[in-house]
Amino acid sequence: MSQLHIQVIHGPNLNMLGTREPGHYGSQTLVDINESIIELGDELNVRVTTFQSNHEGEIVDKIQHLDTDALIINPAAYTHTSVAIRDALLSVKIPFIEVHLSNIHKREDFRHKSMMVDMAMGVIAGFGAQSYNLALRGLHHHLISLKKS
Ligand code: DQA
To answer: Which domain holds residue 49?
Structure first.
């Protein structure tokens, strides 16, 4: 069976993890999070590649050029505003999981709305850095079941 490939995309300000609002986002840095998800990928025999940008257009470009089996995306603040990222996700039809470190539904009202959630295969929010690993486990399970059927 060929190796699955999953892309992880981190949106704006997630490069500041570790020092940014630790009460909401914990103390792990983005490097820690990427290392952990790549390590879990090795365990599951999934190739995991990661990308972070503070710029909406760069995230759109990255999505348009995806050639992976699936996507894990934390669009960060763009979750709540970006029609452009929604349209990019619609244009490529790659299965994706929306991830958030914090439970956005426990926070300010403007964070309750997601521009992409209705297109996502699933959403994981509120488990801190572990949200990414839970998403990878979920996607892996789903993609392996599809290959078997
Ligand atoms: C976030 C939640 C967003 O509301 C916020 O703008 C972020 C991070 C999260 O991971 O909890 O930057 O996506």
So the answer is: 4-148
Are the C-beta atoms of 28 and 128 separated by less than 8 Å?
A: yes
CA 111 – ligand 1 centroid, Å: 8
Is any ligand 1 atom within 6 A of the Cβ of residue 100?
yes
Three-state secondary-structure class, residue 83: helix
CATH number of the domain enclosing 143? 3.40.50.9100
- Determine if ligand 1 sits within 6 Å of the CB of residue 74: yes
Q: How many domains does the chain have?
A: 1
pLDDT at 145: 87
State the Cα–Cα distance between residues 103 and 12, nearest whole angstrom: 17
Residue 1, pLDDT score: 63
Interacting residues of 145 by C-beta distance below 8 A, sequence separation 6+: none
When pLDDT is cut at 50, 70 and 90, the band that residue 21 belongs to is confident
105, pLDDT greater than 90:
yes
